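thought: fold this chain, then report.
action: predict
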Amino acid sequence: MRELSDLGKSSGSQDGGENEGGEVNRVQLEGFTGADAELKYLPSGHPVANLSVATSERYKDAKGNDQEKTEWHRIVVFGKAAERAGKIRKGQLVTLEGKLQTRSWDGKDGKKQYMTEVVAQRVHVIQLGEQQAVEPRREPAKSVEGSQEVAEDDIPF
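observation:
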């Protein structure tokens, strides 16, 4: 963890989510998978796994009633680790670390579509007290400004 005196300093590591300006793009999540992982291969032959992870927040509203809010996160894992992550099944508890990435493409209607997802550097599946690490190859992220909800049919893979 960086100390306050370290602000403005950087390791310069793209993989760690930091850049030379000292900004940090780092995400940590723990939640349950909403579906079996989907393993596909890019035209280059490189594997990519896609996961859906839910995180929930419980709180009391102004009237004292219990409330729960669930957020769904899109997770992408690249490289050999994607093949291992492709074995993750619905309902498994996972913890992960990665960075946010927004990508864009032209939808079927010709409009620019955007999606923000977590590109995972570390994924841990927690089963019966055991922990298995999945370490993907780290690749630089392409950044695009803006984000909006997109239909599953418009996602290019």
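thought: worth noting. The first strand starts at residue 27 and ends at 33.
final: tokens above.
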